[in-house]
Write a structure and sequence with these properties.
The protein is an alpha+beta fold and 179 residues long. Helix content is 43%, strand content 15%. It has one domain: NADH Oxidase. The protein has five helices and four strands.
Length: 179
């Protein structure tokens, strides 16, 4: 039997994305509380996410969303990682407030954000170990958050995954809105 890499690449990359989710799940969590959610999107969902990113530019004016919306279309899949919001009750002040009780409800607990960052690092390390291309994207994560694809998550980041001759998520040119 001959298996050509081009014919099994998509399936292989989705498998790696699943391993990335496992790495995020097993990453250390503050106080041992796991608030991380993870999912993989492929195919039409990537196009839907790209369209949402383009639509969001009008709302906030961040033009790099246009470039990133085009960039994710080159991915075989995207890993979405997010965290639900839960006060950890340490009164550590790491969020900028002296106590948890003095923290405004819209201010996230810093431990939630730190846990998400560690999960992202573990997922990306797994991808690097397996020699696939990734880039952490706030823009695609925010669009996925707005689409509520990770139910209840208040912070979401996206990691597009690719295997090509050159990482398509770096050395990107700004993309202008079509007038």
């Amino acid at each position: 039997m001959i298996v050509n890499e081009r014919h099994c690449r998509h399936e292989h990359l989705v498998g790696i994305a699943k391993q990335m989710m496992t790495a995020a799940r097993t990453a250390p969590k503050g106080k041992g509380v796991d608030l991380i959610e993870a999912a993989v999107i492929t195919g039409e969902e990537i196009k839907h996410l790209s369209d949402k990113m383009i639509a969001m530019v009008e709302e906030h004016g961040m033009k790099f969303f246009l470039r990133d919306a085009d960039s994710i279309l080159k991915a075989e899949c995207l890993v979405l990682l997010g965290t639900r919001k839960k006060e950890q009750g340490l009164n550590c002040g790491h969020c900028g407030c002296p106590t948890c009780a003095s923290r405004a409800p819209e201010t996230p607990c810093a431990l939630n954000a730190i846990d998400l960052g560690i999960a992202i690092g573990s997922a990306c390390a797994t991808a690097a170990d397996l020699r696939v291309d990734t880039r952490v994207m706030f823009s695609a994560g925010l669009a996925a958050q707005r689409l509520d694809w990770l139910d209840g998550c208040t912070m979401v980041m996206a990691i597009p995954v690719s295997a090509s001759s050159k990482n398509p998520f770096f050395d990107r040119q700004p993309k202008e809105e079509n007038k």
